Amino acid sequence: MDDEVNRTNYYTGLIEFLCRMDEVSSGRWGCEPEISIFSVPEKLRKLKEDAYNPHFVSIGPFHRNKGNLVPMQQHKRGYQHSLFALLEVETYEKYQDEETSSMREDMEIRVSEMICGCYSGLRCELDPREVQEILFLDGCFILELFLRFAPDLNYITPEKYKSDPLINSAWMVRALCHDLALLENQIPFFTLEVIYDMIKPRLVSKCKAPESVTSLALSFFKPMMSQNTYIEEHSYKDCIDLLDLLHKSSLLATSGVGTAFERRVILKHAAGNLTPGDQYYSGSLNYCASELVQSGIELCKESGDSLANISFMRNGGLIKIPPVLIYDIRDSLFRNLIAYEQNNINTRHHVTSYAILMKTLIRSPRDVKLLRRKGIISQNWIEDEEYVTHFRSLLQEVIPKDFYFGDLCEEVNAYAKIILLCKELIVFNS
Questions:
Q1: Which of 335, 325, 303 is nearest to 377 (CA)?
Q2: At residue 211, what are phi and psi to the nearest 5 degrees?
Q3: Which residues, listed in sequence order, are joined to residue 119 by a DSSP beta bridge?
Q4: In whole angstroms, what is the distance from residue 205 CA to residue 375 CA?
Q5: Cα 201 to Cα 198: distance, rounded to the nearest angstrom
Q6: Which of 99, 262, 332, 358 would you label with 65, given CA atoms 20 to 30 Å apart?
């Protein structure tokens, strides 16, 4: 009986999903869908392949047949069946009429073509039903995962939480954070919104459901960021996928990014062509952290978490920098965000800009030790040299388009140059 109920729930849920996706596609695109989910450029993948490949779960079509990801399919289906309990099954019976089968097949083809059109380099060689089932399964899995993980939501009982091997394991949550933030391991964000709208009527009666998918997603990804980050109930418009949400969110960028980018500094060199040493990016800092302090400029830790929240107070010569964090999962996130910026011509390069600024600021272990003393880099197990090589490696084979910190660097360079010249004159005259 349970199997029959599950099959009925699956069928009716899938049909409703298709109908809503068809409505979204006709409203979002008049003709051809816009490519929005990209594959990793081969030159970047070769540098650190592990940072771009899923370890446990495949999302979307790119990695669906990889053998090491097959065991997670069972967990994905279990999560999907759990989410079916929130569907209003009886309202979907009209879609089971055999007379609508031809119309349903046409709809499946339209939705399949629309989905395939969102992916770069993905031809619609898959069976239309397989395409829709991939997105429906993966979308249900992601939402159920977010709902179960959300703090204070009380979506599942404590007993069920303790018995769940995915969310009751810190290392598994960490691994899932990694996999769901990969450039190639994505489904269109509107897929999640469609499914969330399907379950929301019953969800709100079960728990304190957020208004949007975005707050659920950002709550899940919070362990990748600073623990001080405050997640607001906010809906970011026109998100492409989860990685794009992280790119847009306040976890990585301030609301002032757009205006700052109107004053662009175009970089003259491709990062991949530069060699470690004294050769750095046009428009960036001329001085490393140690040289800035030597010139009389002070460095201190900024309380905010945004990458873009780096400021220079000319009155007093003070640069405020948010905490610099590097570890395996954050390294992967940075690499995938930079790869995303490299692929999407409409995206501003503020993550790449941050990496450039950090590379020019941190040029030797001496700079790392200084930033540790200032509290900008925490006292942890990571070697000083690793911080130096980290930002260099992030920028290998990367071609920057915009430099967000151009104005800041220009001010700092001018300020430091004047102070250093004054010091040289004092020494000369003495």
A1: 325
A2: -70, -30
A3: 37
A4: 46
A5: 7
A6: 332
Beginning with the edge strand found earlier in the chain, give each strand of the sheet holding 311-313 in spatial order.
298-301, 318-321, 311-313
Residue with tokens 């083809």: 109
Cα distance between residue 419 and residue 351, in whole Å = 30
Smallest CA-to-CA distance from 77 within 135, 168, 138, 4 is with 138
Give every CB contact of residue 91 below 8 A, 6+ residues apart in sequence. Answer: none
Q: What is the pLDDT of residues 307-345, one digit of tens each?
A: 888 999 999 899 999 988 877 788 999 999 999 999 998
d(CA 311, CA 317): 11
CA distance 147 to 233: 15
The two three-digit tokens of residue 116, written as one number: 């395939």
Residue type, 302: E
Geometric angle at alpha carbon 36, from 254 and 211, rounded to 5°: 55
Alpha carbon distance 300, 321 (integer Å): 6
Residues of the chain with pLDDT under 70: 1-6, 27-33, 88-101, 123-125, 225-235, 250-282, 305, 430
Give the tokens for residue 211.
């208004």
Q: 């260099």: which residue's tokens?
A: 392
Q: β-pairing, 298-301 with 311-313? A: unpaired
pTM: 0.88
Cα(351)–Cα(308) distance, rounded to whole angstroms?
8
For 298, phi then psi, to 5°, come to -95, 145
Residue recorded with tokens 């809906």: 235
Q: Which two tokens stand for residue 309?
A: 């929240």
What pLDDT does 91 receive? 45
